[in-house]
Each structure stands twice: as structure tokens, then as C-alpha cells.
Amino acid sequence: MDFDWLFKKKQTFPDFWNDYLNYFDKKKNSEAVANARFIAFDTETTGFDKKEDRILSIGAVAFIGKKIEVSNTLELYLEQAVFKAETVEIHGLMKKGAFEKVTELEAIKIFLAYIKNDVLIAHHANFDKNMINEMLLRHGLGKLKNKFIDTGYLYKKSKHIIYRENLKSYSLDDLCKELNVPTVDRHTATGDALITALVFLKILARLDKRKHLNWGYLLGG
Q1: Which residues pair with 41 in a beta bridge?
Q2: Domain-embedded: residue 78
Q3: Count of domains forming the chain
Q4: 39 to 18, 190, 201, 220: CA distances (angstroms)
Q5: How, if at all, do strands 55-64 and 119-122 pair?
Q6: Among residues 168, 144, 164, 158, which one has the least CA distance to residue 203?
Q7: Dihedrals phi, psi of 137, to nearest 5 degrees
Q8: How is residue 78 annotated by DSSP?
Q9: Per-residue confidence at 187, pLDDT binned at 50, 70, 90?
Q10: How far apart are CA 191 and CA 184, in angstroms?
């Protein structure tokens, strides 16, 4: 009988991944929503296929209550292993540009250290989450453990609109128009992250007036 499996080493992960996981040993969401640190983030990519396409840039902003930590934003540009000239018109990122670029692995380390166990905010969040998760899996890591809030879904929920009754998929531009949020630096990762943060704060103000500003409402399906 082959007993080799008994002596196989348990899979080990790099320190930066273990550091990230350790943040989740601490209880989250026990504090009031108004005192919690949120991270709004966005990715610019070569396309929409999580397997074939790659992240070109990641932008993120942190905020607590109504205060955005402008001096503590995250802006990463990644080395382009995949290049699609047809998408440059949207994001403006050339394969060789003026921005200082980091490897995919270095981007992962910086991003995880920035987000810790905070709640992540994104517009159409599943896309950005899937792109990040696929990047993590390429380097033998697990998926993100953070809670996510999708501003598109939360906006509909705040208006008491159910997806089955209204199939409109609100774009970030739609929400900016309806909530009177300026679209500065649109289609840059950091610009869209800041816009998403402002949209989220506008929605929170609406929920606060209706006494819905609680974790159950924000994180509920």
C-alpha cells in the first residue's frame, strides 16, 4: 500500500497571503456603519474574459463615514502580458507608457495590504471581483475573502426596485447623472474608484434618512 500521501507537506502560502488571511480573524461588521472603513475600487482591463484578459490598472480609495482619505489612494499600473490595441481608446493605457508599472504579483501584494478585511465597494462588482480572483488563482492563492457591495444593485435596492421588475442595468454614468456626481477622470481606475465612492456615499445618505443604514441591509441579498 502506498503511504506517500501521509508524508506530503501541507500546502504553504507566502507570508503576504497569510498576513491578509489573518485580518479575518478579527471580527468585522460589529462596529457601526458610520465608523467602518470602506474601500471603493475599480479595475481597467484588456477585456471582459476573466481567463483570457488581464488587469491593466487598479485604483482604490478608502473612506470612513463621509471622509475620503484623499492622501491614501491606491493607483497601480500593471505590466501588460496581454495587449489589445482596440481597448486603448477606452482606458488610454499603452503597452509602454509613462506610468511606472509593477508585476502582477507585486500588484497583488500591494492591493491585499491596502484592502485588509475592509468591505469592498465596486460598480458591477462581480466583474472586478472575478478579475482579481482570477489573478490570485494564477499565482496559486485563494479568492478574496472581503465582503462586497455593488453600487448598481444597492441603488436599485434603495429605490425599492427589484431586478425581476426592472431589468435596467444602471451604468456608473447613469448613477452619476441621477445622483448628481461629477464624472472627473472617468475610465481611469482611480477616477472611477473615487466616483464609485461618491455614489456610494450618496446612497448611504438616502438609506440613513430611511433608517436602513445597517449591515443587514447593506450586505443582505
Answers
A1: 60
A2: yes
A3: 1
A4: 20, 12, 12, 18
A5: unpaired
A6: 158
A7: -65, -35
A8: B
A9: confident
A10: 7
> Could you list the residue range(s) of the whole structural domain that residue 177 is in?
17-22+32-219
Q: Are the CB atoms for 82 and 54 separated by under 8 Å?
A: yes
DSSP E strands in 6-152: the ranges are: 37-45, 55-64, 67-68, 74-77, 119-122, 148-150
Strand spans (E) along the chain = 37-45, 55-64, 67-68, 74-77, 119-122, 148-150
Per-residue pLDDT band for 151 (boundaries 50, 70, 90) equals: very high
pLDDT reported for residue 221: 67
Q: Which of 8-12, 121-125, 138-142 has the lowest mean pLDDT?
A: 8-12
CATH of the domain at 213: 3.30.420.10
* Residue 193 within a domain: yes
pLDDT of amino acid 111:
98
**Count of beta carbons in the 10 Å neighbourhood of residue 56:** 27
Integer CA distances (angstroms), 76 to 43, 119, 131, 141, in order = 10, 20, 15, 20
Reported as a single tens digit per residue, the pLDDT across 82-97 is 655 555 444 444 455 5
> Do the beta carbons of residue 23 and residue 79 sit within 8 Å?
no
Residues 6+ apart with CB under 8 A from 167: none
Q: What is the pLDDT of residue 117?
A: 96
Q: How far is CA 216 from CA 150, 202, 219, in A?
A: 15, 19, 6
User: Per the domain annotation, does 85 fall within a domain?
Assistant: yes
Lowest mean pLDDT among 84-93, 96-105, 120-129: 84-93
Asked if residue 6 belongs to a domain, the reply is no
